[in-house]
UniProtKB/TrEMBL annotation:
Species annotation: Zea mays (Maize)
Domain of life: Eukaryota
Pfam families referenced in this protein's UniProt entry, alphabetically: Arm
Protein name per UniProt: Protein ARABIDILLO 1
ARM repeats: 39-81, 80-117
SUPFAM superfamilies hit by this protein: ARM repeat
Amino acid sequence: LARSCKLDGALEQAARGLANLAAHGDNNDNNAAVGQEAGALEALVQLTGSQNEGVRQEAAGALWNLSFDDRNREAIAAVGGVEALVALVQQCLNASEGLQERAAGALWGLSVSEANR
């Protein structure tokens, strides 16, 4: 969807859906499953560069939720997630509090992995 759809509302809802599926908890197999879905992480990383703030916010939120799984942390980094989130944080100083929180939270989540430091 992220590669073929140009409708910001649909992209925002798709990213929000992935974020909800990956919502962390004590035992959430969905988190790992979403991260292992072919192209999901790449698409979310790509969406952090959207011109639409809502799309960026939901993509960062999904990456934050996904970063609670060890395998996802390294996979997100492998597809350029750290660089994309750093760029997003640098650009979002004038953005909404929600976007700032999700972008910073995703970076924090990725930083837990020794491989990403």
